[in-house]
Structure formats: C-alpha cells, structure tokens
Amino acid sequence: MIKKPIIGISGSIIKDQRGIFPGYQRAYVNNDYIRAVNNNGGVALILPTSPAETAKQIIAAIDGLILSGGQDVNPFNYGEEIQQKCGAIFPARDDFEFALLEAAEAKKIPVLGICRGAQIINVYRGGTLYQDISYRAEHTIRHFQLQDPPIPTHKIGITVNSLLDRTIQKDSMLVNSFHHQLVKSVPVSLQISGTTSDGVVEALEDASFEFFLGVQFHPEMLIDSVQSANQIFQKLIEVAAKD
Fold first, then answer.
1. Residue 204: which of 234, 240, 159 has the closest Cα?
2. Is-catalytic flag, 218?
3. Catalytically annotated residue among 86, 115, 179, 205
4. Is 220 a catalytic residue?
5. Residues 161-178: pLDDT tens digits?
6. Cα 160 to chain center, whole Å?
7. For residue 216, what are the β-bridge partners?
8. What is residue 23's predicted lDDT score, i.e. its pLDDT?
9. 185: how many CB neighbours lie within 10 A of its CB?
10. Please, what are the domains in the chain?
C-alpha cells in the first residue's frame, strides 16, 4: 500500500450556540478542507490552535501545510492600530500559525494559505493588509459574494510562469470570494501571481520553494465545480509526497 502524505490543516475555535452546551468552545475546520485533501490523494489532519512552542513538533509529523480561513489578522502584527471596520481577531491563532510557517519553511514542506491563510503568509513575511475593502481608494469589485460557495463570481488573471500558472496551466481562473480584508503591500520575498480586474491581489507565492502559495479565494469550496481548484490541492500533495 502506497503511503499517502499527511497534510496538516490549521484549525480555529468556534463557540457552539446549539445543543446542551451553548457557548462551549470547539476546535474545527470546515469539512471542505478535509474533502479537498482526501479526494486529491492526501491524508487530512486538523491542527487545532495550540501554543506556538508546539509548532516545530507538529510540523515534524506532517508532509504539507494548509493555513485555513477564519478571523482577521491582528493589525498589531503589521504595525497598525485596529480600525473601525476590522473584524474579530484571534491573536493566539496568529502566533501559532506564524510558528507553523517558520517551522514549515525550515523543513521545506509545501505550504498553501487560503483566504486568511494567504494574509497570514503576507503579514508573516512583512506585508500589510487593508483592514476593510472600504479603506482601499481604488474602485473595488465585490469580494464577498452572495451566492453559494461553489459558485464562482469573478475571474483572476494569473502571472505567466508562476507556480499557479504551472499548476493549473491557464492564464485565468474563475473563483469564489469571501473576504472583507485585502492584501495592501507585498514583501520582496513574495511574488504576486494572481489579481482581479480591479488590481486586488488574489495569489502570491515564493519562487524559492517548490510549493509555497497563498490564495485569497477558497479552492476547497470549488472542488466540485472548478477543476482548477483540485489541481491546486493535487500539486500540493504531489510535492508533499516527495522524500
């Protein structure tokens, strides 16, 4: 039997308002992440938000890392005060995911950041964010869709010869969109590999790694409707499977 690579998926905490324990905290990720990994050749493993000092040991046990969506990144991490339209933050999760990234880079395993995960990558490397779309001066299309998650609502253009281009072998992709914050500045260690028609960053990567990618959209929600979404997970898992 061929051993499948283990892909760790960073989780969050939700307060369950139903059942016999209303307000009880539960560690979770949306099941789409699990399906996206398992359906494309990997073994999904949820990584609950934990003390940052545990990250190195956790990364030692996995072959690839996905940073999932969720709360806003704490603006203190990129030198700003919290503005009026910033959403809920989870500083302990930021610290844990920064530590996961540091350990993943040291081990040189493939990394995929999704939505918040892409923003975490950008901030970890020294970039900044718009705390809300309304703080961007330029015209901006809708980036929080009103349709069901598997329905794409806008197109992104993909940079030629980028990792994303080589992965899906297309110069554009139809994607969904569920974010109110945007990438503002990108550090020199990352390259922009996907943008919308309004110039918003939708994908960024580090070309010095075989697979190190952040996407602002949610490919895990598109696996049943957009084949290119599966190709992203397939490439991550293919790289993770290498010795």
1. 159
2. yes
3. 115
4. yes
5. 999 999 999 999 999 999
6. 21
7. none
8. 84
9. 12
10. 6-240 (3.40.50.880)
